[in-house]
Amino acid sequence: MAAGSVNPFNLSDSEDEAQQRPEDGVDTERSPSDGAPGPPSNNPFSLQADAEPPALLLSSTRTSPSVEGISIAAAAMAGGLAETRVSVDVIAAQLIRDQYILTALEFHTELLESGRELPRLRDYFSNPGNFERQSGTPPACKDQGLGQGGPLNRAGSISTLDSLDFARYSDDGNRESDERVAVLEFELRKAKETVQALRANLTQAAESDTQERNKNYKSNHEIQEPIRPLEKRALNFLVNEYLLKNEYKLSAITFSDENDQDFELWDDVGLNIPKPPDLLQSYRNCGSALPSPRDTVDVAVGVESGELTGNYITQKHDLLQQQQTEVVEELEYQISLLNEEKQSLADQINKLQSEIQSLRRTVSPPPPDQGSHLNSLCSSSTPLPPQPPLDNSQYLDITGASEPDNPPTESNPPTQTVSSPTHTSTQPHAKLKYRGTVVFDQPNRKLSPAFQQALLSFCKMSADSRLGAEVSRIADNEESVMLMLGRCLPHIVPNVLLAKREELIPLILCTACLHPEPKERDQLLHILFNLIKRPDDERRVRMILTGCVAFARHVGPTRIEAELLPQCWEQINHKYSERRLLVAEACGALAPYLPKEIRSSLVLSMLQQMLAEDKADMVREAVVKSLAIIMGYIDDPDKYSQGFELMLLSLGDPSERVVSAIHQVFIPAFAAWTTELGNLQTTLIPSLLARIEKLLKQGEHGLDEHKLHMFLSALQSLIPPLFSVVLQNAPFTHRVNLKGNIPPIEVTRFPRPASPLQDLATIVGSRETLSALLILYDYQLEHEGTTGWDSLLWVVNQLLPQLIEIVGRINVTSTTCVHEFSRFFWRLCRTFGKIFTNTKVKPQFQEILRLSEENVDALTGNGILTKATVPVYATGVLTCYSQDEDRKLLVGFLEDVMTTLSLSHAPLDSLKASFIELGANPVYHELLLTVLWYGVVHTSALVRCTAARMFELLVKGVNETLVAQRVVPALITLSSDPEISVRISTIPAFGTIMETVTQKELLERVKMQLASFLEDPQYQHQHSLHMEIIRTFGRVGPNADPRFRDEFVLPHLHKLALVNNVQATDSKRIDIATQLFEAYSALSCCFISEELMVNHFLPGLRCLRTDMEQLSPEHEVILTSMIKEGEMKVENRGIGQAEGSVSIAASLVGEDAKTKFLSKMGQLTTSGAMLANVFQRKK
């Protein structure tokens, strides 16, 4: 140790002892671990020693002896005492005896480094028991007062003196934790050495075991021992490595979680050998045995550079290439030989199997007199010819036991009885045939056969019952097993719990497939279809249907027709819908395996009957799906008309499930068949269009909207097949190239299909094919035109004109019809693409609508603007694409329509229909507000009036923010318009705001504006304004805010009624009275407080009755009844208690009071007495 360093063991336990130590400056000793050179006599553990005993030499009161003290004592002994040799073993023994463990450990380490290992120290430190609780007390522990049995602080270290941290130690002697760390480090090193030794032993054992198993495998490779833990860990490591290398990360994580093993380190496997090759390399080398690492030796040889010739490397490369070529040729030759041998063996196997089958069919049972001869043959020493395997249609009878050579008798049956397959069903034991005798060891006894038989009779065996007969014989082959199962299953099934009967399905199916008797097969299939009383979806689909399909694949079309279909026919009218559902789904699942004649006749008729007669929605839905499968496999063109009728029948079904199934499954399948027949454009689509036209002719006074929806939805489902026909019959189909980089199809290119069968990629074949066709389709339309493209020309020249003509004939006020045709044209344009829409669809609509400047001021010849063509074109064609130019075109079209209709004084129904359809989608609210603002600032008062009325339609769907920011300012602007007609036109929109908006600020602004209309003197004689306000109050009053109704509507209605009493003009008076009557009728359904009833509602009714007495006596009778009813309510104080409102129609329990009331009003032609009874309460 260098000068100035501190010996870690030179520490004192007390201050007194520290004062007795030499000065720190004197440093004459060196630690043995320093390795410094010096004379041998200076070594404290040199062979020089004095005559003092070893205990005197090493005794100390310190916890660990001071090396310095030892060194001084050794020097003193070397200088003046008699020379005595002290052995190293004695020093080790003294250190261990006095419990100087750390000193002994350092001593042991020094000896190990010098190559002189001491057995005593090695054994001591190798024994963990020496470091547990000690029964003895070391001297140091006695001095410190630890007492008997104190724990020994483990302190073993493999560190040298230089590597220790001296800052850990203090002069108080408390070093237990540091000593424990040192001992634990030493134990860890010993444990690692033990593990390495165990691994070496394990490797040796594994290698020897592997060699032994390889020998066994060569001798008998069919025997496979269970995997051993060591093999399992090694394979787990390789499998995890394979998963990680091939990017199966989730699988690797799951695999690692399921195995308690460290996959990061090969040493964790437990083998002290290098890691083997990965799984891929092992698989590639599986044909050749890998050499064991113990059997190979790396040998290196060298050659002087001068000994090599100039062309040595080239010759070596050519030689290697030649050798490899020869090896490859030899291997290819061997492979060809093996293939020839394999083919030859396969032919022999087939030949032998055919011979076995023919022998089984032609073999006949031996005559009775040959039984003894057969037995003699079996007992003779002559070797028998090779016997056939045990699967030869025989039964092994175990009902009795006898000598092999005993003749078969009734009391002593033969050892082996065989039933003939041709008579099994009737006489299973009547006829026997030779199978070979089983020989048993016979005791060396002389018992008589009778005594032996009597003795065996005490074994309780009985074959009298059915079950006993089955148990007493064991089937020898598959046919015998099938016969046994066919007899036993009918008795097993009724005794199995319903919840567990599905476990019998595989057994029933296998038996039904392989059983030789048709009657038994029919019984088994009957059991299968009746196995579960009401099979749920999982049992029906996943088990029974799957089993039926597997049965069909196995037995072929003939047996399906003869065995499975009768079972379906029996269940077609079953009382449980689950059974009928099973039949409907089975017909579709079995369709691919049926004969085509049966598929298009019997099965089609069964499904047609179920579709027409079954009352369960889910059954009819399954029938539709099965019919679709039939349509996918049918090839009889004569069945087209039947399929079309089935489609119409399903479309008219009242169940939404059935209609959804017809669109998702049946129509795509039927369209695919009609496409193959060439009837899609010539027959199917024209037939639907003809039915729509016929419907329009019949519905001039009332259109059947349900049927129109039915036919139009079918046409909409035919759009994808129609587009596929256009693509596949285009002039560019021969130029389709699927090689190279084909760009993907945009996600929004096509509308979302209702099912995979309506996906164009599925119809065409693949997304790559569809993408390639679309590229050529767009290029053809844009640059080359449609010449020679018959399928597309049919769409342009026949389909589109006919559809536009039909649209012009529908009722524009029918929101449903407008919506249906809008969605149809939207799907048509989105499917055929933007180029087609811009170049083929829009021009045809624009030609019909003719929105040019010279036609703005006159509607002559332009009545089409009032038809449904306007909303369909606006919402179905112009909204297909949402780019800026498309939106601008839509805005311009709506502005032109609004201007044209306004200036021409034409009905606004077509414009209203457009706003209603577009307003249903919030995306178009800003656009519609832009159109209306164009009308607000228009120079024509007619256009401004139209804009004001359109706000009424838009307010209901627009959010309150837009109402506050865009709608109300525009209405306020119009309410101050110079033209009184414009101001009046804003009243319905203000009323709608009061009905729908909840913001108080907006409501107050609208209320103030309406109040100005009613209270401003300039409007006192505005008859049309008063009419509009009363009409608006009657419309929005029941739904408006109650406070607005009570504080504003009812008082102003009362005032208007009073003013109308003094109206001089009868026409105006009757107009106002009629509007007041309708308003009061609507408000009578609302809750009205007693105060309002007395102050406003009843007085207003009395004023109105005064007008009606002179102008309309029929109304006067009804008003009188209403007044009496209201007065009675006030008198009885029943408001807000039992009934909660002063509803004039309180007698109409469970019905819409207003509707019922107005319907009663329509009966004004009856007598006054009957009218008076309208408002009488039911007793």
TrEMBL record:
Question: Bias category Basic and acidic residues: which stretches?
Answer: 18-32, 210-221
Record flagged with keyword Signal: no
Ranges: HEAT repeats: 967-1005
Q: Which GO terms describe its biological process?
A: intracellular cholesterol transport
Q: Which GO terms describe its cellular component?
A: recycling endosome; trans-Golgi network
Give the Polar residues compositional bias ranges. 127-137, 412-428
Where in or outside the cell it occurs: the entry states: Golgi apparatus, trans-Golgi network; Recycling endosome
| InterPro entries linked | ARM-like, ARM-type_fold, HEAT_type_2, LisH, RELCH
Which parts of this chain are annotated as the region Disordered? 1-49, 123-156, 202-221, 360-433
Q: What is its main location?
A: Golgi
Gene3D superfamilies (UniProt xref): Leucine-rich Repeat Variant
* Keywords (A to Z) from UniProt: Coiled coil, Endosome, Golgi apparatus, Lipid transport, Repeat, Transport
Identification of the protein by name: LisH domain and HEAT repeat-containing protein KIAA1468
Organism, by scientific name, is Coregonus suidteri
